[in-house]
Amino acid sequence: MSVELITAASPEVHEAMGRLVPQLSRSATPMSATDVERFLSQPGVHLFVFRPDQADAEGQRPILGMLSLATFEIPTGVRAWIEDVVVDEAVRGQGAGLKLVEAALEQAKKVGARTVDLTSRPSREAANRLYRRAGFEQRETNVYRVPLD
């Protein structure tokens, strides 16, 4: 298993996002190639992808998982958030999610974050087990949202 940091858009990344994002959210609007370029060009956005060590029948090592890390500086320090963690259904349970999270934690440390936050719905039981295994602790907090549409 290998995890890599993606720094530029490509047709491969666009295709992978088109395949993986619907496995995470049925309501997410598909991203165009331009959307992927804009996403990756943002300062403080780090896209990690997972690839298997062995090539498939076509000799490729396709992207089978991804994670977004958002880092930003505010008056009280550098903050880091993990978002949109998804591993292809065909390879879940083999450690890819943990490898992605570990890579994101290392990157957050490199940019000076002292903590990393994330949210996960309680119904995502496997994801919540993964985050606890990675060292995350549930916080006593309220998350608020206001729709802007």
Structure in words:
- There is one protein chain.
- The protein is α+β, with helices and mostly antiparallel strands.
- The chain has helices at residues 11-24, 33-41, 96-110, 125-133, and strands at residues 2-6, 45-51, 65-74, 77-87.
- Strand 3 (65-74) and strand 4 form a beta hairpin.
- The longest helix has 15 residues, at 96-110.
- The chain is globular, with a radius of gyration of 16 Å.
- The mean pLDDT is 95.
Helices and strands, with pairings:
Blueprint: E1 2-6, H1 11-24, H2 33-41, E2 45-51, E3 65-74, E4 77-87, H3 96-110, H4 125-133
Antiparallel strand pairs: 1-2, 2-3, 3-4
Sequence stretches where pLDDT stays below 50 over 5 or more residues: none
Look at the helices and sheets and give the structural class.
Answer: alpha+beta
Please describe the biggest sheet, giving its number of strands, its sense, and whether it closes into a barrel: 4 strands, antiparallel
Radius of gyration from the alpha-carbon trace, in angstroms: 16 Å
- What is the β-strand count? 4
Number of helices: 4
State the share of residues found in helices, binned by percent.
Answer: 25-40%
> How much strand?
15-25%
Ends apart, CA distance between termini: 40 Å
**Which whole number gives the mean pLDDT?**
95
Order of helices and strands: EHHEEEHH
Strand order within the widest sheet? 1-2-3-4
Identify the overall geometry: globular
